[in-house]
Amino acid sequence: MFFRCSLAAALLGVAISGGAQEQVAQEQVAAQAPAADRAAGLQTAFTRAREHLRRGINASSWFAQNPRDYSAQHTDTEITADDIATMARLGFDNVRVSVDAAPLEQYPRGDDGLNDDFVARLDRAVDTILADGMAVTIDLHPEDSYKQPLRTDNAAVDRLVALWRKLAAHYAGRDPDRVFFEILNEPEVNDPYRWAGIQARAAAAIREAAPANTIIATGPNYSDIADLLSLHPLDDGNVIYNFHFYDPHEFTHQGATWGLLWWRYEHGIPYPATGSSMQELLKEIPDRAARFQLENYFLDDWNADHIRRLIDEAAGWALVNHVPLVCNEFGVYRKVADPVSRSNWIRDVRTALEADGIGWAMWDYNGGFGVAVKDQEGKSVADPQTVEALGLKMP
Ligand code: GLC
Fold this sequence. Notes:
With about 400 residues, this protein is of the alpha/beta class. It folds into two domains: about 1-40; about 55-255 and about 310-390, TIM Barrel (Alpha-Beta Barrel). It is built from 16 helices and ten strands. It has helices spanning about 1-10, 20-50, 70-80, 80-90, 100-105, 115-130, 145, 155-170, 190-210, 225-230, 250, 280, 290-300, 305-320, 340-355, 385-390; strands at about 55-65, 95-100, 135-140, 180, 215-220, 240-245, 325-330, 360, 370-375, 380. The strands form two sheets. An eight-stranded parallel β-barrel has the order 1-2-3-4-5-6-7-8, surrounded by six helices. Strand 4, helix 9 and strand 5 form a beta-alpha-beta unit. The protein is globular and about 70 Å long. It starts with a helix and ends in a 6-residue tail after the last helix. Alpha-D-glucopyranose binds near residues 65, 185, 329 and 363.
C-alpha cells in the first residue's frame, strides 16, 4: 500500500497530504510488526539449532515404522531408559523420535483428541530424553498411505493440520527450548507449490497451539537437497529447515528391500568408489539398466570432495535465505555393507556437515542403519567404529 501510494504520488508529481502521510505511517508500523516477530523468531531458531541440535540420533522404529506392533510390549523394550542414558553418554545432544500418525489418531481418544495409551507412553519417552539433558524432535513419520493422499486430497491435508493442532497443544507445555515439532518426514508430495501450501497451513496450526516451540520444516518429495533448494522459507521465523542425505543411494541402500528393486542384489560396495571390484560387483545385478546405474556409481567418483560439494549447496541455500538448517537423517544400511566403507561415508558426511555448521542426526539408533546393534538378548550395544565415525567417544 505504502509502495503504491508513494509510487502513485511520484508518478502524479504530487506531494502526499498530511492525513495520507499519517495513514502511510500507520501502515508502515503494521507492516513492520510481523517483520520484527519474524526476526525474533529467527533468532530463537538459530540459537536452539546451535545449542540443541548439533549431534542427534534417530529413534526410528520405536513409535513409528512398526505398524503391526505399537503395543506397550514393543515401546517398552525397543528403546529403554538405559538406551536413552547411553545416547546421552555417547555425546548425542538430541533424539529425533519418529511418531506414526495412525496410533496417535486411534480410538479410544482422550480429552486432547489423541489416543491416551499410546501418547502416555510417548510422553514417558519424551520426558526421559529431556531428563537426560537432551533435546527431542517430535517427527511426524507416518506410513506412505497417510502421506501420498496429501498429493491430491484436501481432506487429507485437513486431517494432517488437525492432528498437528492436537499434538502441538499436547507438547506445548514442555521446555520449548528443547522440544521441536517436525511437520512431516519426507512428505512425498512431489509438487513443490502444493507442498508449500500444506506446510504453511500445518505450521500456522502448530504456531497457534504452541507459540514458543521451534518448528522443523522441509522441502517436498523425500527431503533431498534438490527438494530443499526448491523451497521458499515460511513467514514464521521460529523455524529450522531440514534435509536428508543418503547420496548415493546405490551405496547407502545396498541390500535394501525397499526403494529401487535392484538394491537387494548389491553388497560390499566400496566407498570411496574405487573401480577395482566394479566388474565383479556389476555381475551380481541381473538387469541391464540397473547395472548401468551401478556402473555410474563408480564413474561418478564418489568421495569426500563430491559429498562436500553437495552439502555446500544446502548450506548456500540456508545462507542466502538467512535461516538455520539441520540434516536430521543420514546413514548406511548395515546388512551387506562393508564396515570400513560404511564408516568412511558416515565420517565424510558428518565432517562435511560440521564444516558448514549444519547440525546432524544419524539414522538410526538400533535399527537397520544403527549406531548400536542388538545382541542375542535384544540389548542394544554401541558399535565403536560407527561411534568413531560420528566423532563421538565410547562411554
Ligand atoms: C526414510 C524413510 C524410512 C527409511 C529411511 C531409510 O526416513 O521414511 O522409512 O527407513 O528413510 O531408507
